[in-house]
Queue: 2 jobs
Job 1
Amino acid sequence: MRAPQLRSRHAVSILDRLFTFEGTWDLLQLQFVRNALLAAAVLGLIAGLLAPLIVARGMAFAVHGTSELAFTGGAAALLLGIDVGLGAVGGAVAASLVFGLLGMRQRERDSVIGVVLAFGLGLGVLMLALYEGRSANKFGLLTGSIVSVDSTNLLVLGVCAALVIATFTIAYRPLLFTSADPDVAAAHGVPVRLLGAVFAVLIGLTTALAVPVVGAVLVLAVMVTPGAAAAQVTSSPAVATVLAIVFAEVGLLGGTLLSLGPGLPISGYVATLIFLCYVGCRGVARFQRRVGKAAFA
Amino acid sequence: MVFGDRVLWDGLDLDVQPGEFLAVLGPNGSGKTTLLKVLLGLLPLSAGSLSIAGAPASRGSSSIGYIPQQTSADPQLTLRGRDLVGLGWDGHRMGLGRRRLRRELVDEVLAAVGATEYADVAVGRLSGGEFQRLRVAQALIGDPAVLLCDEPLLSLDLSHQRLISTLIDLRRRAANSAVLFVTHEINPVLSLVDKVLYLVEGRFRIGTCAQVMTSEVLSELYRTQVDVFAVRDRLVVVGAEECAHHSSDRVTL
């Protein structure tokens, strides 16, 4: 009879470890924690802005590939002793440009991304193995950590956010046009390839900034899931963008706050919260359809 | 027009008047789509000149309305009918745009094609006929002098074929727009056609339907025996399709 009791006590203690707010308040007084929250908020804003268009362009896999190559770039930078963030940006922008120029034919694009992704990931793992510094640096690239956000990161993040917002203010409609209706956009003289490259650079920059915070493995959670969740419940591009930003903020800010007490990596919390948003949206969509059908009948 | 070492057509002298309905016919690979791309300013002419509403062809010309083939969108795509139509008006323009004017114009053309009812439904959830009505609205919203239609009736059922071609016809009568209608099937628009351009492997013929759609002319264009029969108010062309299909693997003995 003792074994199950032990096991349940063990489970309770895991839950206690996962959800504790002990010390959260004290931690919130610290500058680096505030930096991390600010970084999460800015990242949520730009990831939420991009997510609906990423989903419309069918670029989820390209984003994943980009984040793995941001990891490769970061690992290379670690090994060479240069700034990891810089390496991540380099790897991600190079990758996203290549992926962005591959064109819109999904099948061809996906196989090229798969090929490049596997190679980049392998290379990154090898370089991490060769690196002889602190192992926390290595792990941080894959799973993210808020300790890695310092004032330089904040500045870079701010500049990138300004870039994304400025591009969206100027070119949102042409971007939407080429994403949702590429053939007619081309017939209207919209520079489809140029805008594809511009959008790819925005994805690359945002991915590179997301990698230190949520980790290379989980970039999809902040850059794709909010858009996919919003698409479940609305078909208006404007509403989808607002919802995606809300979901990304809930995940990133909520995840950061939840991770403070336990002192565990934030990525798990962020990914779970955004996933719950997605599941909730699917439920709402089901309900909407049922009500819609009843209204027609 | 030359494509690589292939001459698609040469010496094509075509004049379409405002309010005129021109059907462009011909087998696959005869250069119909290339002609449209030239008119849209996406490809330059190898030689010669071209003017649309008094100006040379240019990318994104506002005098052109473009209606493509019916395609289906992903049901999850966050784009409503009214967004698709609105993009036809200012989707190519930078900046924030004039939202109220856009909304008024969108509502107006949606009503004109009878699509108001499903204007707020995701485009991926519409039927092919509903989608094509939005395409007509998307082309009309810019108030174009010329309508370029690239097989807009393809894969539609008969009643929607009639509906879409009627909408295009109404527009050209109301606004005196010229219509250039690429199709491989003339019957759905037979009663609307003023002029026909028939392209076959670099050869072409321009004229009224009665002048071009004859056994003699088509036999000459295809360089094989082609028969044209009038059955009630339809034209049946026998021999052209087979010829077009086998032209690439013809064996010379």
Note: The interface with chain A takes residues 40-42, 58-61, 66, 68, 71, 73-74, 76-80, 83-84, 87-88, 90-97, 120-122, 138, 148 of chain B (CB under 8 Å).
Job 2
Amino acid sequence: MNRQVNLLGSVLALAGLTGAALAQAGDLVVIMAPGAAALSKDQVANVYIGRNKDLKPYDLPESASERTEFYRKATDRDLSQVKALWTRLTFTGEGTPPKELADDAAVKKAVAADPKAIGYVSKASVDSTVKVVLELN
Amino acid sequence: MTRSLRWTRKSRAQFLILLSPVLMASAWADDSVSVAVSGFGTAGAAMTSNANYAYYHDSTEYTGASNKIDVGLESKLGLQAVVTFGSSGFSATAQEVVRERGNDLFSPGTEWLYAQYDVNHDLTFRLGRVALATFLLSDSRNVGYASNWMNAPNEVYGDEPFQYLDGGQARWKISAGPVNIKLTGAFGSTSQGISINGVQLNVQAKTAFNVAAAIDYGNMLLRVSETGGDSPFSLALSPALTVATTTKDRFSAVGFQYDDGKALVLSEWAKRTQNNIPLVNIPLAASTQWYVAGGWRVGSWTPMATYGVAKGEHSLSDPQGSFGTWSVMTRYDVARNIDLKVQISRPQDSNSRYFLAPSPTTTQRVNVLSFGVDFVF
């Protein structure tokens, strides 16, 4: 009996952990400086795949799982597809890929300082220095 | 045919050109100057199933790949340097690419070399050498990693011998809600060594132009363009007879692209017109060509199929009429910045867009295999 309870407890704990991990990966937000208007998913995608150059996008490092998650949700593309798009733009003089910053804190700082800047961070990192312009669930 | 790997005075000059933006930057004593150096390349190979037919991409390649593995045709290495002068709006770009040119297996050449001034976000002027964007993807044809096929369809892309313009280019972008319109106009001169039926000559267009309008909406892109060049040339047929003329070539092209991350559709149509060439008194190169390509992304794989047709308007230039060619290919994204590709095409041996010396009488299918690794750095 005891053993069964333990087993059930372990399963529930495992399910809980998995759920927490999924929730964390899912809670990404796109941020700009306070005062910015909300953006649609397509508008954000256009900035991050180089169709719209009015905003200055920032990326998290390639190794960050948030980056993979962000492109999957915002642009419906893998990192390698996005890389191929930027490769074409780079070598035809059309633009340079988003600048990479180390972590959420660096992205928040860059975004807070420039009304044209845009970035994505975990929802938990958001504070009053930036405004959420799109939630990616 | 001899092929050589050379490091000549020309090669050194090309590398100095690549360095020129960097040198300019060091001369500009200001902290706001930034230099970005990046590169791309393809290590590839090609072969055909028949020793009599050598596969090539266009008339700028004097040798092709027959039934022995050839590494020159599909391999390239490109380096690019971009210098940005702070927020002044001025920048300079140089791009050198080592690839097969004429008889040389690995020959460096300047693809782009221009000074740019951004008047504002939407209006840009360039002065110098820019790629000649006759077709939808002409300006990135050397950059394997940027595309899903090993080779852009020969039917369309193999018909334009010129590759760059030395002159000026204006670029204007108009955004209207979700729609972006991009207008470009370039004017200048160009020259190119080509080989037609084994005759090698240098063609020069003293005046050449390219105007294009591209409109994108979401995952769709439509582009229409007009490209032309007037090339005077004289050909000594005998000591007593020299034919001097100016060929006036025009390409009218329409390109469409749809890419939603999963499905991929590409299609282009191009019509080439030309004035009457002396002696034969017909527009020899006049032709119509098109292709349709479709692909579907599955994980790291992007399999695609294309069907292309090129049709010469006169029997003298297209004695066997036109036939379609199927190609199948796949891209596999193997790692960050690296992909693997393989492509198989089945043109008829009479197809001059695929073979250096096409058959004048038969119409047998020949298999053409290309594969390679693309990388960016």
Note: The two ends of chain A are 40 Å apart (CA to CA).
